[in-house]
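Thread: Newbie trying to understand structure tokens

Hi all, I'm a second-year student working on a class project, and my supervisor (Dr. K.) asked me to get a predicted structure for one chain before our next meeting. I've only ever worked with sequences, so writing a 3D structure as a token string is new to me. If someone could post the tokens and maybe explain what I'm looking at, I'd be very grateful. Here's the chain:
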Amino acid sequence: MANILIIDDEENLRKLLARVIELEGYNVLQSATVKDAFKILHRENIQVIISDVKLPDGNGVDLTARIKLEFPATEVIVLTAYGTIEDGVRAIKNGAFDYLTKGEHQEKIIPLVSKASEKAVLQQKVFSLESRLQKKFGFDSILGKNKHLKECIALAGKVAATDTNVLLLGETGTGKEVFAQAIHYESTRRSKSFVALNCSAFPKDLLESELFGYAEGAFTSATKSKKGYLDEAHEGTLFLDEIGEMNIDLQAKLLRVLENGEYYRVGESKPHTVNIRIIAATNRDLEKESEGNNFRKDLFYRLSVFTISLPTLQERKDDVELLARYFITQFSLKTNKKDLSIAPDFFKTLQKHPWKGNIRELKNVIERSVILADKELNVSLLPADFNTEDESNAADLASVEKKHIRKILTFAGGNKTQAAKLLGIGLTTLYQKIKDYDL
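---
Reply by user tm_fold:
Sure, no problem. This is what the structure looks like when written as tokens:
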């Protein structure tokens, strides 16, 4: 049952009210002053507060605003011996669940406590879920101690509290979507949808219908109307990854959304309105692209109000071991290999690698290494290009690569598509290596 806190300096009335509420199965705590009440609030998880207006060290109406500021999920019921309309209105404005005059409260208090506690329990669950989401997707989820990365997190933290559009710049695999998610979950839009759309994943015509939606009969296969990504992101955040790949005609339609929130579904003449925040990302130089008329200058200026340039993993070499250990823990649990030891030179070898694929490449390398490991993670489990310092070892490297591919094929159960994905190579390349190594 819910925890109820009664704040009233009239001891007899307070104890009587506590007894009535306890008989309904609630756990009741009592306080005669505001000071003692806050000690209880910081110690206990309180769902409902019943507070007198006149207290020795405060006013119940003003107290309501303070409680809702510090404990927003807790509901407050204000009691007074001499009720006034002015106090009642002010109490509700300050966030009180209800305002009762003593005398009329005897019949109303139990149903009111029941409704208030139900609302408080639900709100606490929502706040708890939001807190877990922030830890999972917020800035705490971004691992690294690198100075440049910390500067990026600080910038993202400042812009998250606003509704400003953000442009994230950086090479593929630097974590642009992770940053976009963090900005969303640290913003006031966190309770609404975060919708991600990769602009390079669709051809021009399909991208337009996916983004804006379409009407029934708009094209041959449009047997019924469909909402687009803009609709899905309404009141939330739309993340447009690889926006540099968007067709210039479609850019003009996106610009209209940024200017006045209006857009048209494919095959419709009626405009729709949407309230969204856009976070865009690209590995291209959009300013150069706009100078070459490959990207609209007006759209570039709209998107680049606040720009954050993410560092490559090569520029974050001090974070390689930290990230690697995180991925080792993650994939050790996933593959049920919790007791893997790590060879002394394993992290040193990772540090020397150029990491052209950035964090995504590191993640894939660690996943493959954990899959291949028996009891220890060592350099022999790494892909062949980690050991190319001595050309005289070419034959040995080929042997290592052959063994590596065989293990991955075995792990994938002969599924070559899955094996190619785990190896980080194209399916055609895998078939060629199978032929070369007679696997």
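A couple of things are worth pointing out once you decode it. The longest strand covers residues 75-80. The chain has three domains: 3-134, 138-309, 314-436. Feel free to ask follow-ups in this thread.
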